[in-house]
Specification:
The complex is a heterodimer of chains A (104) and B (143). Chain A is an alpha+beta fold. Chain A is built from 5 helices and 3 strands. In chain A, β2 and β3 form a beta hairpin. In chain A, α2 crosses α3. Chain B is built from 4 helices and no strands. In chain B, α1 runs antiparallel to α4 and α3 runs antiparallel to α4. The longest helix of chain B has 46 residues. The chains are: A alpha+beta (104), B mainly alpha (143). At the A-B interface, α2, β1, α3, β2 and β3 of A face α1 of B. Chain B: This is Membrane protein YqjE.
């Protein structure tokens, strides 16, 4: 086994290394489901930047996007899926390992 | 060649702190109306059904209308306070909380209808409403 294979950074989820995607999943971690605007306000990005990153997460199966209407106003909700939660937990566990605090 | 970006222990710690902060602030900013509503609904319907189960005549009428009035006021407050942050109200978790409240409420109403005046079943079913509401609120607050 080589030294590079041993380093935990190789186990980090590639998709979650993007700062915006990381923040989106972090915002959804406790809440489970949030509205598009709630996530946008929490992550502090523009609507278009958020849409782009949400699409990537949706394609990977990490986030489910729901569409509904409140009167004539469209409402978009984002839900962290089971796959997304598992990937997020594994990503955080690897970060803890790198940080040297596995039991945190 | 190894192209995986190196991440130091300090950077990892900063990322973990950021994730924790974001997760807490997003949850805290949107959940208080839900937690307040389920708690208040539990307390009001628990007291209301207990009073209805043990009273008759005017006292029963007062308990009945007071419970309905409080329930409708709470629903209006809830609908107004979740405007713009209603996504969670369509989630499976919220449906579970409301379903657990409804099952216990239906049991308490059954006691009011079919076992009127019996203290023990009334206390048990009304108590169960409180327990269901408190557990739901606590679970959501600690999520």
């Amino acid at each position: 086994m080589t030294a590079t294979e041993q380093h935990p950074r190789h186990r980090l989820d590639e998709l979650l290394q993007n700062p915006v995607r990381f923040s989106i999943v972090a915002a959804l971690d406790r809440a489970g489901t949030l509205g598009f605007k709630e996530v946008r306000d929490a992550v502090e990005v523009t609507d278009s930047a958020l849409s782009k990153q949400v699409s990537s997460l949706e394609s990977a199966g990490y986030v489910a996007v729901g569409k509904s209407f409140a009167g004539k106003m469209p409402r978009t909700s984002l839900t962290l899926t089971r796959e997304g939660r598992a990937a997020w937990k594994a990503h955080l566990a690897t970060l803890r390992e790198i940080a040297g605090e596995p039991g945190r | 060649m190894d192209t995986t970006p190196t991440i130091t222990a300090t950077e990892a710690r900063l990322l973990l702190d950021r994730a924790d902060r974001l997760s807490r602030s997003a949850h805290n900013a949107t959940r208080w109306p839900y937690i307040t509503f389920i708690l208040a609904l539990g307390v009001a319907t628990s007291m209301g059904t207990f009073a209805m189960a043990l009273t008759t005549g005017d006292a029963f009428g007062l308990a009945y209308f007071a419970t309905l009035a409080v329930m409708f006021s709470l629903i209006i407050f809830f609908m107004l306070s979740i405007q713009g942050r209603s996504a969670f109200s369509h989630s499976r978790r919220w449906t579970g909380y409301i379903a657990s409240w409804f099952v216990t409420y239906a049991a308490a109403i059954s006691v009011v209808i079919w076992a009127h005046g019996e203290v023990v079943p009334a206390a048990i079913t009304s108590g169960l409403i409180l327990v269901a509401a408190f557990v739901s609120a606590a679970r959501e607050a600690r999520a």
